[in-house]
Amino acid sequence: MPQSTTNAGEEYRFTRFRTALLLDDLTFDRNAPAPGDRMPAFDLPTLGGGRFTDADLGHLPVLMVFGSRTCPVTESAGPVLRALHRDFGDRVRFVLVNTREAHPGERFGQPRTAEDKWRHAEELRKHHGIAFEVAVDDLDGGLHRAMSPKPNSAYLLDATGVISYRAHWANDEQGLRTALAAITAGAAPPRGRSRAMVGPLLRAVGHLPGVVTFAGGRVERDIWLAATPLAVLGRISRLFRRLPKDRRGIAAAAFTGAVVVLAAAVVAVAS
């Protein structure tokens, strides 16, 4: 029997991060909207009092990004989106869609009401200094779920609502910049999808401690249970506080790799 909309909405608004959610985050559903597909119908309010709707996207291409205040990848993507908006904002409509919280904690949990969702969107805009539109999805994530919900995916749409480019992670600046440069020059993006995966995740690792501090210690406990390798890297990234946050995860991974190689060498010598 198909899952009811009510149950799907309740599942969408999870309160504890789990391994199954991590695995879902890593792949798009087979039937998820992809380059060449038209966006599903939607009509969302924006914090500025306007509407973000498939029926009237305007006359410009649209970069639509999903994100939340407790998403480490969104944390990493904030500076990327601000830079892209400075360079392309006069030729592309930018819209950040506030979603469910990626890592709800005891201090900043999953929104329970439409008013909570609105306040979370305001916090997201304020925290990142967003100068473009912030749209608020409904409490059960109607649009987000229709797109195969990922914590920080991005879609470049033409003015008719057809997807020209899809990025799994919005902190993939090179991929998004290339796609935006193409579409503003009147050409199709050279690639329909961003394949970047490991790099964006490592750039996000250094932001995990900040998310824990903001949302609550339960977030770190949940990540230890659901995604132990990421939790380990997040903890080690704290050793590299002199580095920019985007580089701390890479440094933590390199450090961990060196320790593993050294340990293997010691064992080999001892045996």
Kindly list the characteristics that best describe this protein.
2 domains, about 270 residues, Glutaredoxin, 8 strands, alpha/beta, about 10% strand
Describe this structure in words.
There is one protein chain. With 271 residues, the chain is α/β, with parallel strands linked by helices. It has two domains: 5-195, Glutaredoxin (3-Layer(aba) Sandwich); 202-270, no CATH class. Helices cover 46% and strands 12% of the residues. It has eleven helices and eight strands. It has helices at residues 5-12, 19-25, 72-88, 114-128, 142-146, 173-184, 198-205, 208-215, 218-226, 228-237, 245-270; strands spanning 43-45, 51-53, 62-67, 93-98, 133-136, 154-157, 163-167, 193-194. The strands form two sheets. A six-stranded mixed beta sheet has the order 5-4-3-6-7-8. Helix 3 runs parallel beside helix 6 and helix 9 packs across helix 10 (228-237). The longest helix has 26 residues, at 245-270.
Tally the beta strands: 8
| CATH homolog superfamily of the largest domain | Glutaredoxin
What is the makeup of the main sheet? 6 strands, mixed
Please identify the structural class as seen in this structure.
alpha/beta
- Reading off the top of the CATH hierarchy, the class of the largest domain is best stated as Alpha Beta
**Cα-to-Cα separation, first versus last residue:** 58 Å
